[in-house]
């Protein structure tokens, strides 16, 4: 691997920063302490700081030379509303809050790159360090855009990185085009007519209607959508009734829809609505159909992905780069950035969990799990990738 020596020398301090953030997790739009830590470190290294975009977001600005070119690097900062089961010293000190997705590591890696870029300045142009709040369901990327991120900090491209458990430690992976799915949810209420369970003819049973709707929806995947298109429609909750001898007035269907393209998403939403309304009408019932589009598909741009692949190879070696990783049906709000600007989002392998200190939980080291912990050996690798990307994208004049 071609890692940046000053960053390697700074690794222990980066680990301290990362573990401090892990011990003090903050949920979306509550990242005040985290933002204070980030802003203080940037200021300590002489980097101008702008705060307040996306409420708790932080943007650092490093300029060098005379070039008007600029790129953005993004790290997310928020934690998850879940209980950590690890008991090592840097485990969460806030019950019900945990860095179970590695955003503490993402923030530390970008801070490591920021320190080196500010000190060495082996590039010509501007680097915008985007520390984003509220990735976990809060659409912090969209909020920063609405607050004028790209107008105030004009950049030609933006890049992001996420750790990925199960991939070998320090390997880098990406794919051009769709890499992560859209995230959407539905809340459907079937309104029937309650009755005594011994006299069902006197009512309109919303449970049986909901069952008909649930079964019909799966035909959208198998009969309406092209077999070449990918989509998932999962009903994850059914709520109805309160007694064994009562047919309730209503039944609820709740779940998620994931797609890699907007046209397929349009198809699913429209067909789900039509089937629900017509099936309910066929039984003299009514339906309330709510479909919420949370995050769009994350689609990497071809040119920026090719560029990122070459940087990846330069840092970790060609044998440690997968440039055609299988896309995941998970979602990421970095997708909002990629709708506005060219860019690329990559994965850095977090390993299988062998890195965890004594006192970790017995669960697997996977994302959104109470036994998860970020792999600190990635800190100089991810930071070195950011430095190499900047110095290659914004080269000094020869």
UniProtKB/TrEMBL annotation:
What cofactor does its activity depend on?
Mn(2+)
Manner of cofactor binding, per the entry note: The Mn(2+) ion enhances activity.
The answer to whether the entry has keyword Transferase is: no
A single Pfam family, by name? Peptidase_M20
Domain (Peptidase M20 dimerisation) spans 185-279
Annotated binding of Mn(2+), by residue: 101, 103, 136, 162, 368
> Which GO terms fall under molecular function for this chain's record?
metal ion binding; N-acetyldiaminopimelate deacetylase activity
> Which GO biological-process labels does this protein carry?
diaminopimelate biosynthetic process
Keywords associated with the record = Hydrolase, Manganese, Metal-binding
> Which InterPro entries does this chain map to?
Amidohydrolase, Bact_exopeptidase_dim_dom, Peptidase_M20, Peptidase_M20_dimer
Q: What is this protein called?
A: Hippurate hydrolase
- Record organism: Pseudoduganella namucuonensis
């Amino acid at each position: 691997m071609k890692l940046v020596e000053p960053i390697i020398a700074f690794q222990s301090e980066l680990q301290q920063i990362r573990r401090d953030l892990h011990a003090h997790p903050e949920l979306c739009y509550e990242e005040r302490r985290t933002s204070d830590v980030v802003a203080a470190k940037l200021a300590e290294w002489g980097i101008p700081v702008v705060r307040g975009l996306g409420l708790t977001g932080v943007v650092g600005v490093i300029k060098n030379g005379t070039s008007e070119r600029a790129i953005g690097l993004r790290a997310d900062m928020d934690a998850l509303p879940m209980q950590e089961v690890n008991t090592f010293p840097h485990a969460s000190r806030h019950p019900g809050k945990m860095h179970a997705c590695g955003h503490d590591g993402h923030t530390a890696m970008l801070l490591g790159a920021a320190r080196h870029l500010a000190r060495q300045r082996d590039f010509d142009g501007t680097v915008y360090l985007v520390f984003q709040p509220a990735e976990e369901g809060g659409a912090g990327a969209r909020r920063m855009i609405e607050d004028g991120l790209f107008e105030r900090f004009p950049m030609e491209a933006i890049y992001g990185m996420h750790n990925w458990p199960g991939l070998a430690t320090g390997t880098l992976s990406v794919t051009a085009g769709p890499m992560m799915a859209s995230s959407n949810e539905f809340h459907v209420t079937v309104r029937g007519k309650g009755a005594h369970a011994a006299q069902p003819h006197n009512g309109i049973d919303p449970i049986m209607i909901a069952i008909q709707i649930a079964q019909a929806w799966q035909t959208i995947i198998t009969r309406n959508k092209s077999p070449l298109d990918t989509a998932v429609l999962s009903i994850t909750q059914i709520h109805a009734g309160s007694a064994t001898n009562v047919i309730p007035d209503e039944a609820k269907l709740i779940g998620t829809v994931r797609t890699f393209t907007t046209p397929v998403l349009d198809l699913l939403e429209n067909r789900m609505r039509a089937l629900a309304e017509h099936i309910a009408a066929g039984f003299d019932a009514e339906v309330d159909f709510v479909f919420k589009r949370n995050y769009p598909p994350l689609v990497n741009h071809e040119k920026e992905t090719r560029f990122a692949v070459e940087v990846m190879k330069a840092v970790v070696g060609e044998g440690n780069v997968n440039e055609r990783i299988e896309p995941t049906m998970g979602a990421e709000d970095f997708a909002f950035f990629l709708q506005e600007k060219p860019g690329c989002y990559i994965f850095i392998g977090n390993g299988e969990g062998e890195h965890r200190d004594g006192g970790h939980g017995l669960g697997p080291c996977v994302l959104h799990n109470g036994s998860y912990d970020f792999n600190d050996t990635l800190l100089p690798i991810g930071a070195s990738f950011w430095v190499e990307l900047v110095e290659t994208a914004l080269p000094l004049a020869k």
